Amino acid sequence: MLHPSGLPENLLKIDRTLVMGVLNVTPDSFSDGGRFNDQVIATNHALQMIEDGADIIDIGGESTRPGSDRISVEEELDRVLPVISALSGTGVAISIDTMRVEVARAGVAAGACMINDVSGGKADPGMLDFVATLETPYILMHWRGPSNIMNTLTDYQDVVADVASEINQQVEVAVAAGIARDRIVIDPGIGFAKTVDQNWPILKHLDVLEGLGLPILMGASRKKFLGELLAKDGIARDSDERESATTAISTLMAARGLWAVRVHDVKSSSDAIVVVDRIAKTS
Ligand code: PMM
Fold first, then answer.
1. Which of 44, 107, 223, 252 would you call most buried, defined as having the most Cβ atoms within 10 angstroms of its Cβ?
2. How far apart are alpha carbons 200 and 223 in whole angstroms?
3. What's the pTM value of the predicted model, to 2 decimals?
């Protein structure tokens, strides 16, 4: 397993695809929106995800749903910090899902041990310089622009090659800012500036991304392309009924040896990954 450096000891020892459980502390996230915005409920949900097999809890306060508008820094901090603080005593690995350096800084101070930046350092000019002062892993996702316009940023010559080369360029920018290359995890950003159909070739031709030689995180859980694939009579499958499809992707990613999957329903993906791992370790 290709782990990024700076990962907590207990995760470094794990020799299978990791499970990152999604904790969106937002009233408007597309799948769990409004249900976990109460901090006590959010904290309990995180504890349940750990019980179900999550290795990392990814805490985010700002929705990146296509079309969504930005919230203020204060609001983002108010949503995530109490939950990070409540969980930081439990020993669980926490990642802070943010595009803002202020939130990343406060999140790390409150106990987060990695930063998940869906903009890969493009949204906030201070982010990469701050990350360079840390020793934690940094998740750098493929990003072309903010959520309210990303559906207009889907022109590619060759989506697989272009996404890999844009990620590679941004990795170079991060390295030039002083972030050690081996701390970086890359992520193709399923659904971000991609049409529904553009996600499939990325999943099919993973060898191109793997060619960059960095650990890969995949966040396909419950996303629209799955709902569209499973549509009936022209109506997309609801987001909370995309779990088997999500598990199928987690299974394939684990068989491929990806570093981690980011999922809402931890138990189904975790169970699938345990099975894949058992088969892989059988002689
Ligand atoms: N997707 C979402 C949010 N954060 N982070 C990473 N690294 N990769 C993703 O694919 C990703 C992410 C949007 O989905 P959500 O609303 O379910 O969190």
1. 107
2. 12
3. 0.96
